[in-house]
Predict the 3D structure of the following.
Amino acid sequence: MKVLVPLADGVEEMEAVIVVDTLRRARWDVVTAGLKPGVVTASRGVKLVPDAVLGEVDLGSFDMLFIPGGSKGVDNLRADPRVLEAVRQFSRKPKHLAAICAGPLVLQEAGVLTGRKVTCHPGEAAKITQAQRLQDRVVVDGNLVTSQGAGTTFDLALKLIELFDGRDKAASVAKGMVFDWHP
């Protein structure tokens, strides 16, 4: 799997870094892409250095788009027409979309949540108006996988690995991290 992760100032660092790291442990090709060149300052002041700049990556070469949360980061992603168009492209193919915390709001802004089932951070639930919001830690609806927040990042990453590489691979990655995973 090849996964694109757009990063904007204000991103929730745990959601971005834990998912990226866990997927890389499964030997997935994960590329982080900043909205602009240079360092991204995450929600708690952690500095992240993206692998690429969003405008310079070939969207067609990716299998999945993962949208991390963080209120300010999500606001920045929602305001970027390139991100919204990427979401639409992945939805049309259909390729795979994943989002965590407030990240589903980016998908909603792009107009791809109508009739879908999602989960999100409970504090953002009232803003989800185009989809049926469930309270599960991780929700899978076809090519769309969503999760609630920082505390569910490992659940999300391991669910993605399980979906595409199987339960044994996800269990192996969890074991290597000494993570008590019970799907």
The radius of gyration is 15 Å.
